[in-house]
Amino acid sequence: MIKVNAMGDSCPIPVIKAKKAMQDLQGPEIIEVLVDNEIAVQNVTKLGTSTGGMVTSEKLTEKEYKVTIRMEGAPAAVAAQETCRPDMRGNSVAVISSDRMGSGNDELGKVLMKGFIFAVTQLDVLPQQMLFYNGGAVLTSEGSDSLEDLKSMEAQGVEILTCGTCLDYYGLKEKLAVGSITNMYSIVEAMNDAAKIIKP
Asked: Whole-prediction pTM value?
Protein backbone atom coordinates (compact mmCIF):
# COMPACT_ATOMS: atom_id res chain seq x y z
CA MET A 1 0.00 0.00 0.00
CA ILE A 2 1.22 3.49 -0.88
CA LYS A 3 0.23 6.20 1.60
CA VAL A 4 0.06 9.83 0.46
CA ASN A 5 -0.26 12.55 3.10
CA ALA A 6 -1.85 15.64 1.57
CA MET A 7 -3.21 17.05 4.84
CA GLY A 8 -3.02 20.84 4.79
CA ASP A 9 -2.15 20.94 1.09
CA SER A 10 -4.00 23.35 -1.18
CA CYS A 11 -5.30 22.36 -4.58
CA PRO A 12 -3.81 21.09 -6.87
CA ILE A 13 -1.13 19.57 -4.57
CA PRO A 14 -3.25 16.57 -3.38
CA VAL A 15 -4.00 15.67 -7.02
CA ILE A 16 -0.35 16.07 -8.03
CA LYS A 17 0.82 13.86 -5.14
CA ALA A 18 -1.74 11.17 -6.02
CA LYS A 19 -0.77 11.35 -9.70
CA LYS A 20 2.92 10.89 -8.87
CA ALA A 21 2.11 7.83 -6.75
CA MET A 22 0.18 6.37 -9.70
CA GLN A 23 3.02 6.94 -12.14
CA ASP A 24 5.46 5.07 -9.88
CA LEU A 25 3.35 1.89 -9.87
CA GLN A 26 4.91 -1.34 -11.12
CA GLY A 27 1.84 -3.53 -10.65
CA PRO A 28 -1.50 -3.73 -8.80
CA GLU A 29 -1.46 -1.43 -5.79
CA ILE A 30 -3.67 0.45 -3.35
CA ILE A 31 -3.03 4.17 -2.89
CA GLU A 32 -4.37 5.86 0.24
CA VAL A 33 -4.56 9.66 0.11
CA LEU A 34 -5.25 11.67 3.28
CA VAL A 35 -6.73 15.15 2.77
CA ASP A 36 -8.45 17.71 5.00
CA ASN A 37 -11.37 18.99 2.90
CA GLU A 38 -14.27 17.76 0.75
CA ILE A 39 -13.13 19.53 -2.44
CA ALA A 40 -9.80 17.68 -2.31
CA VAL A 41 -11.72 14.42 -1.90
CA GLN A 42 -13.75 15.26 -5.01
CA ASN A 43 -10.67 16.16 -7.06
CA VAL A 44 -8.62 13.10 -6.04
CA THR A 45 -11.68 10.90 -6.64
CA LYS A 46 -12.04 12.37 -10.14
CA LEU A 47 -8.37 11.67 -10.88
CA GLY A 48 -8.65 8.10 -9.64
CA THR A 49 -11.74 7.24 -11.68
CA SER A 50 -10.40 8.96 -14.83
CA THR A 51 -7.29 6.77 -14.72
CA GLY A 52 -9.14 3.49 -14.31
CA GLY A 53 -8.89 3.09 -10.56
CA MET A 54 -11.60 1.86 -8.21
CA VAL A 55 -12.12 4.71 -5.76
CA THR A 56 -13.73 4.89 -2.34
CA SER A 57 -13.51 7.62 0.26
CA GLU A 58 -14.37 8.01 3.89
CA LYS A 59 -14.73 10.84 6.38
CA LEU A 60 -12.49 9.94 9.33
CA THR A 61 -12.95 13.06 11.46
CA GLU A 62 -14.34 16.56 10.96
CA LYS A 63 -11.20 17.62 9.06
CA GLU A 64 -9.67 14.34 7.92
CA TYR A 65 -10.70 12.28 4.90
CA LYS A 66 -9.23 9.16 3.31
CA VAL A 67 -9.45 8.45 -0.43
CA THR A 68 -8.54 4.88 -1.42
CA ILE A 69 -7.60 4.20 -5.04
CA ARG A 70 -7.23 0.57 -6.13
CA MET A 71 -5.08 0.40 -9.27
CA GLU A 72 -4.34 -2.66 -11.43
CA GLY A 73 -1.02 -1.09 -12.39
CA ALA A 74 0.41 2.12 -13.79
CA PRO A 75 -2.37 4.06 -15.54
CA ALA A 76 -2.32 3.94 -19.33
CA ALA A 77 -2.81 7.69 -19.38
CA VAL A 78 -3.09 10.27 -16.63
CA ALA A 79 -4.91 13.54 -17.21
CA ALA A 80 -2.31 15.93 -18.55
CA GLN A 81 -3.50 18.88 -16.56
CA GLU A 82 -4.52 19.00 -12.91
CA THR A 83 -7.24 21.48 -12.23
CA CYS A 84 -8.93 22.66 -9.07
CA ARG A 85 -12.51 21.87 -9.90
CA PRO A 86 -15.24 23.76 -8.07
CA ASP A 87 -17.48 21.96 -5.61
CA MET A 88 -19.03 19.08 -7.56
CA ARG A 89 -22.37 19.10 -5.76
CA GLY A 90 -25.48 20.53 -7.37
CA ASN A 91 -28.69 21.76 -5.81
CA SER A 92 -30.40 18.40 -6.16
CA VAL A 93 -31.65 15.97 -3.51
CA ALA A 94 -31.89 12.17 -3.78
CA VAL A 95 -34.90 10.78 -1.91
CA ILE A 96 -34.95 7.09 -1.00
CA SER A 97 -37.99 5.62 0.74
CA SER A 98 -37.30 1.89 0.43
CA ASP A 99 -34.44 -0.59 0.55
CA ARG A 100 -35.52 -1.90 -2.86
CA MET A 101 -36.25 -0.32 -6.23
CA GLY A 102 -39.44 -0.90 -8.16
CA SER A 103 -42.04 -3.59 -7.61
CA GLY A 104 -42.15 -7.24 -8.60
CA ASN A 105 -39.32 -9.32 -7.18
CA ASP A 106 -37.94 -8.16 -3.81
CA GLU A 107 -34.46 -9.65 -4.29
CA LEU A 108 -34.16 -8.00 -7.70
CA GLY A 109 -35.40 -4.78 -6.14
CA LYS A 110 -32.57 -4.84 -3.58
CA VAL A 111 -30.00 -5.47 -6.33
CA LEU A 112 -31.43 -2.57 -8.34
CA MET A 113 -31.31 -0.23 -5.32
CA LYS A 114 -27.66 -1.09 -4.66
CA GLY A 115 -26.98 -0.35 -8.35
CA PHE A 116 -28.92 2.91 -8.14
CA ILE A 117 -26.89 4.19 -5.18
CA PHE A 118 -23.63 3.20 -6.89
CA ALA A 119 -24.77 5.02 -10.06
CA VAL A 120 -25.35 8.19 -8.01
CA THR A 121 -21.68 8.04 -6.90
CA GLN A 122 -20.67 8.15 -10.57
CA LEU A 123 -22.61 11.31 -11.47
CA ASP A 124 -20.48 14.25 -12.62
CA VAL A 125 -22.49 16.45 -10.26
CA LEU A 126 -23.39 14.80 -6.97
CA PRO A 127 -26.60 15.61 -5.09
CA GLN A 128 -26.34 18.05 -2.23
CA GLN A 129 -28.24 15.72 0.09
CA MET A 130 -29.56 12.16 0.22
CA LEU A 131 -32.70 11.66 2.30
CA PHE A 132 -33.65 8.23 3.65
CA TYR A 133 -37.01 7.44 5.23
CA ASN A 134 -39.33 4.47 5.87
CA GLY A 135 -37.63 1.33 4.47
CA GLY A 136 -34.80 3.45 3.12
CA ALA A 137 -33.52 3.78 6.70
CA VAL A 138 -32.16 0.23 6.41
CA LEU A 139 -29.67 1.41 3.77
CA THR A 140 -27.81 3.76 6.13
CA SER A 141 -27.62 1.22 8.95
CA GLU A 142 -25.17 -1.51 9.90
CA GLY A 143 -25.21 -4.43 7.46
CA SER A 144 -26.24 -2.37 4.43
CA ASP A 145 -24.54 -3.32 1.15
CA SER A 146 -24.46 0.37 0.19
CA LEU A 147 -22.49 1.74 3.16
CA GLU A 148 -19.20 2.02 1.26
CA ASP A 149 -20.84 4.05 -1.53
CA LEU A 150 -22.70 6.27 0.95
CA LYS A 151 -19.56 6.91 3.02
CA SER A 152 -17.71 7.80 -0.17
CA MET A 153 -20.35 10.40 -1.05
CA GLU A 154 -20.41 11.73 2.51
CA ALA A 155 -16.63 12.28 2.32
CA GLN A 156 -17.22 14.34 -0.82
CA GLY A 157 -19.64 16.59 1.04
CA VAL A 158 -22.99 14.95 0.30
CA GLU A 159 -25.19 15.23 3.38
CA ILE A 160 -26.67 11.82 4.27
CA LEU A 161 -29.81 12.23 6.40
CA THR A 162 -32.08 9.50 7.80
CA CYS A 163 -35.50 9.94 9.38
CA GLY A 164 -35.25 9.47 13.16
CA THR A 165 -38.85 8.26 13.51
CA CYS A 166 -38.14 5.59 10.89
CA LEU A 167 -34.94 4.43 12.62
CA ASP A 168 -36.90 4.17 15.89
CA TYR A 169 -39.69 2.20 14.23
CA TYR A 170 -37.28 -0.35 12.75
CA GLY A 171 -35.12 -0.48 15.91
CA LEU A 172 -32.10 0.87 14.03
CA LYS A 173 -31.31 4.11 15.89
CA GLU A 174 -28.20 2.62 17.53
CA LYS A 175 -27.14 1.00 14.25
CA LEU A 176 -26.97 4.11 12.05
CA ALA A 177 -23.62 3.72 10.25
CA VAL A 178 -23.40 6.78 7.98
CA GLY A 179 -24.69 10.34 8.06
CA SER A 180 -26.95 11.79 10.71
CA ILE A 181 -30.54 11.69 11.97
CA THR A 182 -33.13 14.17 10.75
CA ASN A 183 -36.86 14.85 11.15
CA MET A 184 -39.78 15.15 8.78
CA TYR A 185 -39.81 18.95 8.83
CA SER A 186 -36.18 19.04 7.65
CA ILE A 187 -36.93 16.42 4.98
CA VAL A 188 -39.84 18.50 3.62
CA GLU A 189 -37.73 21.67 3.78
CA ALA A 190 -34.85 20.02 1.87
CA MET A 191 -37.19 18.72 -0.84
CA ASN A 192 -38.92 22.09 -1.13
CA ASP A 193 -35.61 23.95 -1.51
CA ALA A 194 -34.10 21.51 -4.04
CA ALA A 195 -33.82 22.52 -7.66
CA LYS A 196 -34.26 18.85 -8.63
CA ILE A 197 -35.33 15.68 -6.81
CA ILE A 198 -33.86 12.30 -7.79
CA LYS A 199 -36.04 9.36 -6.80
CA PRO A 200 -35.62 5.69 -7.71
From this structure: 0.79
